[in-house]
């Protein structure tokens, strides 16, 4: 870590990997297999981070590794169209309400491009987002809410000019009145509303019944596009993502969607897509520019395609079972130790809030956590060989590779960690 800090800011290439929220020194991983991570000192951990979502099948799945190796041997990048890109796009279109997708290399690129496309298609500038939803480090989406209910965003970080966020409106999540109000006031200037299909970046905050449907309907009524960010939930919450649990059942579809994480099988691959008439606005057929040297990379798309093809309903059952076991045992241990908490879940995804609230419905609720108790819990689990997210605001990601032995190891570590959180 000392060497890393000399040449890499904070020693990490993405801030969330540092142990800023929980204290201590991050572990440097040397290898991973199934549900286990092994660090450079040879210590093994049962993993509940899963690279922040992609590792649905577990680490180093033999068929995914073989597909990536075979693809790499055929050439690591062509800079031309290739068959695997088409197959991956077909797989995404088959599972989602998108008609066309364009492949990119990160979730950030996907949402950035979807926003540009929505603005180009509608000829409008305003973007509506929710406090606590993360869509990557896109300038216009790194907006914090000002004071008041529905406010024009102020930059959430130095380096983002005020001009980049002044066309972004930030609303509280799960608040239909705020949505109706902002559209009543600015509806004819709104290009799109972007939301996580089910927020996972403030911990799991399920959309209340009918909320996404209201967003879709309100956007339609005002000629704005509804952009559903499924970078985290896509091919994770269920085989058809969060849409499969919500829109498919309620009878609505987003105009645009974004994907990442699972669809890349652990490689840099992401996508945005949706209605064919909207996607037709994209370069080269339309005027909205978007491009990428490594977009649709043959190694990444081979790993992603293999991952999606292996991700059958049976896989989602196993991922869901692992979540059932860990969530139930965590509740039991924390309850016994007298630690206030609430577990929230969508599909196979869940997170644990260290709060005495009965329910967390928005960013303010998520913020009211005992992060000190979480830090103690986190370190006790780490010492017992379980790798949890190093922040209280994150999903605990399970995989289809979590065996009963892996789950037992987590379950047996919980009581002592719950005591540490109570202390
Ligand atoms: N959208 C959502 C919902 C995400 O969870 C993330 C990443 N956590 C992103 C976008 C950004 O993806 P990436 O980190 O690949 O840029």
Automatic annotation (TrEMBL):
Keywords recorded for this protein, A-Z: Cytoplasm, Isomerase, Porphyrin biosynthesis, Pyridoxal phosphate
GO-annotated biological processes: protoporphyrinogen IX biosynthetic process
CDD domains: OAT_like
Gene Ontology CC annotation, any one: cytoplasm
Domain of life, per lineage: Bacteria
Species this protein is from: Nocardioides mangrovicus
Pfam (any one): Aminotran_3
Protein name, UniProt field: Glutamate-1-semialdehyde 2,1-aminomutase
């Amino acid at each position: 870590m000392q060497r890393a800090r000399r040449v890499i800011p904070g020693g990490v290439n993405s801030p969330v990997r540092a142990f800023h929220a929980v204290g201590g020194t991050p572990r440097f991983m040397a290898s991973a297999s199934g549900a286990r991570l092994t660090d450079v000192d040879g210590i093994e951990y049962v993993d509940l981070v899963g690279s922040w979502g992609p590792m649905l099948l577990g680490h180093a799945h033999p068929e995914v590794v073989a597909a990536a190796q075979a693809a790499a041997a055929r050439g690591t990048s062509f800079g031309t169209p290739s068959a695997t890109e088409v197959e991956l796009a077909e797989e995404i279109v088959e599972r989602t309400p998108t008609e066309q997708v364009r492949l990119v290399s990160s979730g950030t690129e996907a949402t950035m491009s979807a926003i540009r496309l929505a603005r180009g298609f509608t000829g409008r500038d305003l973007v509506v987002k929710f406090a606590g939803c993360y869509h990557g480090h896109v300038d216009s989406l790194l907006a914090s809410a000002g004071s008041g209910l529905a406010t024009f965003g102020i930059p959430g970080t130095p380096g983002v000019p005020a001009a980049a966020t002044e066309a972004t409106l930030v609303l509280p999540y799960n608040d239909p009145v705020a949505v109706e109000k902002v559209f009543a006031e600015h509806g004819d200037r709104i290009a799109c509303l972007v939301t996580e299909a089910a927020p996972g970046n403030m911990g799991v905050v399920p959309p209340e019944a009918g909320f996404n449907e209201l967003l879709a309907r309100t956007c339609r009524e005002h000629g704005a596009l509804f952009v559903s960010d499924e970078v985290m939930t896509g091919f994770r919450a269920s085989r058809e993502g969060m849409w499969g649990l919500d829109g498919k059942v309620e009878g609505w579809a987003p105009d645009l969607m974004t994907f990442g994480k699972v669809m890349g099988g652990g490689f840099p691959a992401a996508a945005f897509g949706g209605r064919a008439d909207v996607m037709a606005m994209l370069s080269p057929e339309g005027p909205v520019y978007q491009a990428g040297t490594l977009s649709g990379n043959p190694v990444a798309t081979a790993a992603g395609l293999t991952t999606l093809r292996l991700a059958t309903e049976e896989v989602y059952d196993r991922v869901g079972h692992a979540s059932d076991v860990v969530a139930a045992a965590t509740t039991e241990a924390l309850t016994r130790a007298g630690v206030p908490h609430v577990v929230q879940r969508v599909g196979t995804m869940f997170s644990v809030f260290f709060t005495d609230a009965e329910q967390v419905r928005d960013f303010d609720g998520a913020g009211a956590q005992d992060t000190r108790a979480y830090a103690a819990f986190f370190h006790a689990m780490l010492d017992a060989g379980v790798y949890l997210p190093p922040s209280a605001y994150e999903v605990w990601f399970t995989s289809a590779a979590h065996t009963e032995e892996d789950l037992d190891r987590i379950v047996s570590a919980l009581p002592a960690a719950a005591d540490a959180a109570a202390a």
